[in-house]
UniProtKB/TrEMBL annotation:
It catalyses: Hydrolysis of proteins, acting as an aminopeptidase (notably, cleaving Arg-|-Xaa bonds) as well as an endopeptidase. This is Pro-cathepsin H. Residues 1-18 form the signal peptide. The keyword Disulfide bond applies. InterPro entries: Papain-like_cys_pep_sf (IPR038765), Pept_asp_AS (IPR025661), Pept_cys_AS (IPR000169), Pept_his_AS (IPR025660), Peptidase_C1A (IPR013128), Peptidase_C1A_C (IPR000668), Peptidase_C1A_papain-like (IPR039417), Prot_inhib_I29 (IPR013201). SUPFAM superfamilies: Cysteine proteinases (SSF54001).
């Protein structure tokens, strides 16, 4: 089997206790009470042994959250569904250590010089962003980043808001270096949808949150990819242009411990890395803006609406924060047979080359030759 990607894709964790922490701390009655209310709120149940272990971790997390919120930071933290887990545990069980392939991804995006609007929010432009979803206990963040970007692309091109099947990507996209619940990359998933000729809807291929057998039925495909746009490694300004002019953009970044408890404000970290081999979670940029002089991205996550700011977070923009500019891409949709011959230049001012090398090991239709495109300046 191929080495799996290290995308984190944290979900609603299935707790397996191991590696008990050192000496138990004596907890205050307030901490015990907090933990009980949190358990009710998150409908948690544990064995007696598990209860004490989780209570300890919870108390430590709660302390960190309170200390952080007293400090001078651009974002606030809060308890959420991850509060009974240590980050070491999350890392051991859910983070992969193999480097990503995203730095090897060739770019085909050449940006202009701007200027670009100071703020953009695709959620406010119309019905262009689907509802926040929840990946659950499966390392499938990359599938949600993928469907989110394609759902927006289809909505922008046709006015139709579809809900697309993450499970199809989990079950079927292995041929493109994706690894189901063990990770993957949006750019590789767009390639899969392109060469597979389509993706089904959530209704006909519902999300299960675990690896399964591929059940793709071509006649039930409802969304199609015409081309994949890979943004140049570390060119965050190109991400700004793409979000401003064309589409929400899928990207990956490195999640470190404090991010798990993010609640609101602009996330910023001094401890995360900026290199493409460290990114471990994929999400979707749906806009950007500036607050008190701090530029930020507006990002849709896939940890449900109770996490963060109604399922969204803001992250500092312009510094390649946590490597967020390492792995950005978005799809150009093809709206099925009726629009088969529609010229892509109606969407983006591209100059087309058909001379680029074709991926010989992959199926593609002769009337849809593989293209490399260059954005006209
Ligand atoms: C990266 O790409 C290479 C070549 O396609 C592949 O063999 C390898 O498994 C990929 N790595 C990951 C982590 O998917
Ligand atoms: C808080 O942080 C900001 C930005 O780092 C800094 O400009 C400001 O002086 C800090 N305020 C205090 C009270 O430390
Ligand atoms: C875009 O990225 C994907 C996956 O990383 C890759 O297969 C594809 O060849 C790239 N496209 C271009 C034009 O380089």
């Amino acid at each position: 089997m191929r080495a799996a990607l290290c995308l984190l894709c944290a979900g609603a964790w299935q707790l397996v206790s191991s590696g008990r922490a050192a000496a138990a701390l004596k907890l205050s009655s307030l901490e015990k009470f907090q933990f009980k209310s949190w358990m009710v709120q998150h409908q948690k149940e544990y064995s007696v042994k598990e209860y004490h272990h989780r209570q300890q971790i919870f108390a430590q997390n709660w302390k960190k959250i309170n200390a952080h919120n007293k400090g001078n930071h651009t974002f606030k933290m809060a308890l959420n569904q991850f509060s009974d887990m240590s980050f070491a545990e999350i890392k051991r069980k859910y983070l992969w250590s193999e480097p990503q392939n995203c730095s090897a991804t060739k770019s085909n995006y050449f940006r202009g010089t701007g200027p670009y609007p100071t703020s953009v929010d695709w959620r406010k432009k119309g019905k262009f962003v689907s509802a926040v979803k929840n990946q659950g206990a499966c390392g499938s963040c990359w599938t949600f980043s993928t469907t989110g970007a394609l759902e927006s692309a289809v909505a922008i091109a046709s006015g139709k808001m579809l809900s697309l099947a993450e499970q199809q990507l989990v079950d079927c996209a292995q041929g493109f270096n994706n690894h189901g619940c063990e990770g993957g990359l949006p750019s590789q998933a767009f390639e899969y949808i392109l060469y597979n000729k389509g993706i089904m809807g959530e209704d006909t291929y519902p999300y299960k949150g675990k690896d399964g057998r591929c059940r793709f039925q071509p006649q039930k495909a409802i969304a199609f990819v015409k081309d994949v746009v890979n943004i140049t490694l570390n060119d965050e300004e190109a991400m700004v242009e793409a979000v401003a002019l064309y589409n929400p953009v899928s990207f990956a970044f490195e999640v470190t411990e404090d991010f798990m408890s993010y609640k609101s404000g602009i996330y910023s970290s001094a401890s995360c890395h900026k290199t493409p081999d460290k990114v471990n979670h994929a999400v979707l940029a749906v806009g950007y803006g500036v607050n008190n002089g701090v530029p930020y991205w507006i990002v849709k996550n896939s940890w449900g609406t109770k996490w963060g700011n109604d399922g969204y977070f803001l992250i500092e923009r312009g510094k390649n924060m946590c490597g967020l500019a390492a792995c950005a891409s978005y799809p150009i949709p093809q709206e099925g047979e009726s629009l088969h011959h529609r010229h892509i230049t109606s969407h983006v001012p591209y100059l087309w080359f058909s001379t680029q090398s074709t991926p010989v090991d992959r199926e593609y239709s002769p009337e849809e030759p593989f293209h490399m495109c260059i954005l006209l300046q």
